[in-house]
Design goal:
Helices cover 76% and strands 0% of the residues. The radius of gyration is 17 Å and the shape is globular. The two termini are 18 Å apart.
């Protein structure tokens, strides 16, 4: 049993690292970042925090919001999301450092660079789902809202991602006079990540 738990945790961490590398590759194109990372990325540019630090702070707020929404239904197991997002935030800063030199020249090359980044995020999401350890706070928040409002997870997820991107765009425009972190790469990655994850899960379906 212990071996099984250890393997699942390893799989979860591997998935988070793959996602972190993918997010960093997309971000390095300077064509925007993934929808769920857009707000933390803009916050990092405006505050001086690292991408990972901003991601950790904002996602801890999402854990708090889950408690506010669920109250008595808030399971202590949800607190596992805090060390999980801490690990992801560390991976993200490491990934940004590792990909510092991966800046493609030319618009076409930068657009094409989004594809492997989105594939890595899709692989990461699939590994996290297969590990069945916990959800990252962003998805945990979506799950909590879905439960409280009795709405499908997918519907709430779309609304949440759109809200994130909109908030990031407004925040960057208000404080810097221009929109950063939200560009065509954000839309492209939003379309590709889900499709990559779906293809992988079709080939390696989750166990019932």
């Amino acid at each position: 049993m212990k071996k099984g738990i250890a393997f699942r945790v390893f799989l979860f961490c591997l998935g988070m690292f793959s996602s972190a590398i993918g997010v960093s590759v997309i971000t390095r194109t300077d064509l925007g970042t993934t929808p769920v990372s857009s707000f933390p990325y803009v916050a990092s540019l405006l505050t001086g925090f690292s991408f990972g630090e901003a991601t950790f702070v904002i996602n801890c707020f999402f854990v708090l919001m889950q408690w506010v929404l669920l109250r008595r239904r808030f399971s202590p197991m949800r607190l596992l999301q805090v060390p999980a997002i801490f690990a992801f935030s560390v991976f993200l800063d490491l990934a940004m450092w590792l990909t510092a030199g991966l800046v493609a020249e030319g618009y076409a090359a930068r657009v094409l660079s989004i594809v492997p980044g989105a594939a890595l995020v899709g692989i990461g999401v699939s590994l996290q789902l297969h590990s069945d350890v916990t959800l990252l706070p962003g998805d945990g928040f979506v799950q909590a809202v879905s439960s409280v409002l009795d709405r499908p997870f997918g519907t709430v997820k779309v609304v949440n991602d759109v809200s994130f991107v909109t908030l990031a765009a407004i925040l960057s425009f208000v404080f810097s006079g221009t929109v950063v972190g939200v560009r065509e790469g954000t839309l492209i990655s939003a379309l590709l990540v889900g499709n990559f994850a779906r293809l992988i899960l079709r080939r390696f379906p989750l166990k019932e």
